[in-house]
Specification:
Order of helices and strands: EHEHEHEHEEHEHEHEHEHEHEHEHH
CATH architecture of the largest domain: 3-Layer(aba) Sandwich
Mean pLDDT: 95
Radius of gyration: 21 Å
Structural class: alpha/beta
CATH superfamily of the largest domain: Glycogen Phosphorylase B
Shape: elongated
Largest sheet: 7 strands, parallel
Strand content: 15-25%
CATH class of the largest domain: Alpha Beta
CATH topology of the largest domain: Rossmann fold
Number of helices: 13
Number of domains: 2
């Protein structure tokens, strides 16, 4: 098979990482993998796998993006992929408009993945227009059923995002060289309860709740230090400064370190006492939670969306009602004191299961008469 995946950019994030993982699996199984995006730091890694990247400006939420419909249609007619897999709304509309005007007898089969709880409107509906619609969790499947009832239930496939257990083994510890470098660069963490909040710097990620938590621990005499690990888009730099000011106003400016983009989040999770997710809106899945739990590391988060599903399965001690600041402080203190152990992460929450499930969807369509 030849599979073309389309998404806005290839910089960082779960959608981008999943795109590379599916491409790798396709190539290892003897298929051909192509990706269309505006480019980014992960292009080199994608191409090193043996996949092809085609750069197109399919990332901007503006009407001028529709000028890419005809070039994409020409690309599809030239390359003749068996599967066209859309992973985001703007490129999804470009892809669907290109695809819908092609000959149904020769055009590729259309697959979409609903990666998030998008705003419910006609614009978001494009993510449910695939011949097969992949939901990344049970709660996303329920979201589709509730808000887009015209989507045939028979078209929906639940394929949880998967963790690479070989990369995130239970009990993982960084090597001595990494540890020595970390201790030199982050001496402020020594002797402290280290709380990691991973994720891009965007609103609604719960940074203010996180700062209040660190302040609450400090007031309770618990020596804690917070680490914020995540990319800051150029358009979000002003918000990053807002966050620094907010932390300072709460008296924890020196108790929070903004690490920026890190390629070693696995190692940082392994040396942190607790990793957190405090998103104000439910996450559709939350891969970072699964990675931490797979390593046997404590994870605390708000009990909604995919994070709630995972905590319910693997670490109930980490569940906190959304917005319950007292409950969040209590949960963190109890986890630090009692050190509960996460359950074992296995199928169907593995990378292999995710990739094989996606490949089965492609094969199911490609072999249709």
């Amino acid at each position: 098979m030849k599979v073309l995946q389309i998404l806005p950019e290839l910089n960082s994030g779960g959608v981008e990482r999943g795109t590379l993982e599916v491409a790798r699996h396709l190539i290892s199984a003897g298929h051909e993998a192509m990706v269309v995006s505006n480019g980014g730091r992960l292009v080199a890694e994608l191409e090193s796998l043996g996949a092809r990247h085609i750069a197109m400006p399919v990332h901007k939420k503006r009407l001028s993006s529709l000028f890419q419909v005809r070039p994409l249609r020409r690309l599809l007619e030239r390359e003749r992929p068996d599967i066209l897999h859309i992973r985001s709304r703007v490129p999804g509309w470009i892809a669907w408009l290109a695809w819908s005007k092609m000959d149904p007898a020769t055009r590729p089969h259309l697959v979409s993945t609903v990666h998030g709880f998008y705003s419910v409107n006609a614009y978001s509906r494009i993510m449910t227009r695939g011949e097969r619609v992949i939901a990344v969790s049970d709660c996303v499947r329920d979201y589709i059923r509730t808000h887009y009832p015209a989507t045939p239930d028979a078209a929906i496939r639940v394929i949880p995002r998967g963790v690479e257990l070989e990369r995130y083994p239970r009990g993982f510890q960084p090597d001595a060289a990494w540890l020595a470098k970390w201790q030199r660069e982050q001496p402020q963490c020594a002797g402290k309860v280290v709380l990691l909040l991973p994720g891009r710097i965007t609103r609604l990620k719960g940074h203010e709740d996180y700062f209040a938590l660190v302040a609450g621990l400090k007031a309770a005499g618990v020596p804690a230090h917070g680490l914020v690990a995540g990319d800051t888009h150029p358009k979000k730099r002003a918000y990053l400064e807002e966050l620094r000011e907010r932390a300072a106003a709460l008296g924890v400016g020196d108790d929070i370190t903004f690490l920026g983009h890190r390629s070693d989040v696995r190692e940082i999770m392994a040396v942190s006492d607790i990793t957190l997710s405090l998103s104000q809106q439910p996450e559709s899945f939350g891969r970072v939670a699964l990675e931490a739990l797979a390593m046997g590391r404590a994870f605390v988060g708000y009990d909604h969306g995919g994070i709630g599903e995972q905590l319910n399965l693997f670490f109930p001690a980490g569940r906190v009602t959304l917005g319950d600041s007292a409950g969040l402080l209590r949960a963190v203190v109890e986890v630090v004191d009692k050190k509960p152990t996460p359950g074992i992460v296995g199928e169907p929450f593995t990378l292999r299961s995710m990739c094989e499930g996606t490949l089965r969807v492609y094969e199911e369509l490609a072999t249709k008469p």
